[in-house]
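Board work, copied verbatim: Protein transport Sec1a
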Amino acid sequence: MSCSDNESSSHGGEYKFFRQTSRDLTKDIVLSTGTHPLQAFITDHERALEELYGENAENSRNFDTCLNTMAKRIATVFASLKEFPCVRYRSAKASDPSLTTFRDSIPEKLATVIWDTVVKYKSIPNFPQTETCELLILDRSVDQIAPVIHEWTYDAMCHDLLDMDGNKYVVEVPSKTGGEPEKKEALLEDHDPVWLELRHSHIADASERLHDKMTNLMSKNKAAQMQQNRDGEFSTRDLQKVVQALPQFNEQRDRLSLHVEIAGRINQVIRDDGLRDLGQLEQDLVFGDAGAKEVINFLRTKQDTTPENKLRLLMIYSSVYPEKFEDDKASKLMQLAKLSPEDMKVVNNMRLLGGSSDSKKTSTGSFSLKFDGQKTKQATRKDRTGEEETWQLFRFYPMIEELIENLGKGIFPKDGYACMNDPKPTVQEDTMSVRKKNSSNCSRTF
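↓ predict structure ↓
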């Protein structure tokens, strides 16, 4: 969801109730939200993927229940914020409607129910009558890689590599009584200015900036200077300034110390798990700079890679090269990676989520662990023009980021995306459109 209103904010707590009354509309609007980043909402459907895309989902009552509940909860977000969205959705990929599957049409089905709900809110007093923001509905097939690949921002690595409970991080602090270290909970949320500043920075950049901040604090703060030079002489005025600065200094020091420890733990995991080499291969696969040869070589030489990281690598590989997992090829890769049959089911499901494209099938025949150098490599991302990679492994970007940026610039691709707000053409307009198209085709032919 992309809102054009910069003043919109998230609502804390588990449930918020909103009631609006109009002549013909009196509704209890229930909005379910959790503790999530600013302007982020969830519909609290952990089984949505199974209920909407699972086997025989189209014949299940759970499908309609899940879809309608999700639509209502999404619509009530806009009702509570008094925003009237332009509802866009990713349309079916098949050019021939007869080839469109039930699952291809799910974004459109969800968009339809949301639109039918939010359009009724126009009868609420003071509710906008024209579009004020954008709602973009996508399914996971638009980008299967983003949830799996190792992203290298401070925020992503905190949640990926550390044992966190939501935004809660447990840190050990020295005991005031001199006993065993005490455990203290810290929340990485918007009230923490250091977190807000560094969360989207590359982990290497965040680590450097934290070091600079701590050095600067210790060198310039009066209280820090007094602690470091306790034998020195201070005037009464100096002591007064130290006392005044001490609470603020302790707060800043504790906050920075927390993030220094977190960054240190992340960097330790990166070293212990060999994530730099793995991360480089992941991004090379995505950008078309690596293929079967590099994956096989990694699995052969990096035997100590954790099963989870090998699984994530093969999930990315299957998304870029789905044809490499057909027939008995998947079992050969499973043996090389030493993954369980259950893990390979996950890899296969990842491949099926995006569908196997005929254009990606570059080879046939039996699977071999020998690499054919003549085979072309594939890519699911293009390097952004005019942008330099300041930090290593900062090349990857989620597809939704590009879509939202284009939406904000007004250059959103109409091919493959539709809008519920657009007026439906009449039969006469459809006929004229077909005539113009045929006429145009004839003129090009001659």
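The domain at 1-143+398-446 is CATH 3.40.50 (Rossmann fold).
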